[in-house]
Amino acid sequence: MADSHPPASAEKPGATSPAPAVTRAAAVLDALAASATGRLTLSDLSREVGIPKSSTSNLLLALEEARLISRQGGEFTLGRKLVELGAAYLGRMDEVQEFYRYCEQASVLSRETVRIAMLDGTNVIYLARYEGHPAVRLTSNIGDKMPVSLCAVGKALIARLNWHDIEEMFPDGAELPVLTPKSLRTGAELKAQLSQIREQGFAFEDEESTTGVVCLAVSVPTRGAHGPSLGLSVTALKATYTPEQGSQMVKELQELAHSLGNPMG
Amino acid sequence: MADSHPPASAEKPGATSPAPAVTRAAAVLDALAASATGRLTLSDLSREVGIPKSSTSNLLLALEEARLISRQGGEFTLGRKLVELGAAYLGRMDEVQEFYRYCEQASVLSRETVRIAMLDGTNVIYLARYEGHPAVRLTSNIGDKMPVSLCAVGKALIARLNWHDIEEMFPDGAELPVLTPKSLRTGAELKAQLSQIREQGFAFEDEESTTGVVCLAVSVPTRGAHGPSLGLSVTALKATYTPEQGSQMVKELQELAHSLGNPMG
DNA sequence: GCTGAGCGTTCACTCAACTGAACGCTATCC
DNA sequence: GGATAGCGTTCAGTTGAGTGAACGCTCAGC
To answer: Which of the nucleotides lies closest to A57 (Cα–C1')?
Structure first.
């Protein structure tokens, strides 16, 4: 956990929510998701979220009734309803369906491993994966989170942000998480790549998350006002990767990104 | 809940929740998940869930702040936070990781499509899928729900319940959902299979959910006191399926189920 | 241009949800 | 064995969240 946030102070001190119980319930869910074991007692949660035990107890009863959490003995865990809701979110995204359809019929991408991801703070979350290339079996799964600095799609996504936000997220000296010897180490190294990514219109990852694997990624132009920032990536083995192949992949990724961003086109 | 559900009367009339705002917020999420388009306006939600617009507005503001929903113009959709929470729920289950590891190295299963699911009322929810057999591309995805009567894993899971609960869920005359000509039609038909499933230790599905496809499934012995009921299934094409292959698959499924149920073994 | 239906928002009143101190209970410790 | 610390639950007072009527707004229809 590189992020310095004090464990789970999910409640804004000054701001007052129009439905505090809901805000606090969400904080409880966050605390459970963030905890190491995924199991917390009432007292743990009360302490973590910063609300009285009696109130926490009421929240937990309501959350349990809604199956958003589950009680096992004296411990609470996230509830299975969350799987349903998360799946409903994914299943409903037109983008995901369009993504599959395009990959199936693309000339180069149809034989590769392609993923669609969204930006979430300093991480990306993988939403769906098309596997046209069964030989490459990757560890990442739907719903997985990955620091933006470690993957092409992350770099492609933050390259679209304004510099002020980027500076705030990644000060020059910021230490980045490392997975391979080629992983970027500092905020400065990361930012050095962004202007190039902006110019050429795609991001490249050279064994920065997995040795032997390279990635290409583009961002999807935001559709509508507040849609999530989506990105597309394709993964290839470095051993067989060629620049010619790469430029064709980028071309198809950009075509897909364009059609995702402009549903009418 | 033999739900002939009136759209989304998520609020119990008599019962009073210890934190109504949370219960109602959960009902809002359900309504969004259940809606056809996944996009509802404030008025839609107010009508659907049965609470005043002003209160709904407050709930939506709080939910939006927590990123559990997202507002796009005048319409609301489920929020990306749900993907994270759902993934946190899944990621925390040791079972899923162990499931993948085992499938990778199994002699028969490693070449098939294997899934792990959990019981949720009269449905099963698919938690993870291993695809060792890329030729068989199925429509079901992680998080999908399926009535228990229509799949092998559903039958395997309810076979473990006590008769009283089963009778309550599936009275003899109960009409079951139908997907193919071979789908089971009534509670009586379903229950007739259960004792056999208990005796032989696995469940079989013969084109009951998809024509041309057969499934084998076993249930995982419940680990600990209140863990969710997990089941495993393997899917095969009827055209190429042989009983010899089937018995080997069952053997491996049972082995996996046993190791999932007894983490020390 | 006028009307009406439907949308989301605002606001003062009121009832019920939140609080925190006290309780009973179960380990754990010396 | 008695004392302590920590757990979750209970309960009455009070504050703050929920209510619904009224508002301003947009869009369709005639």
So the answer is: D8
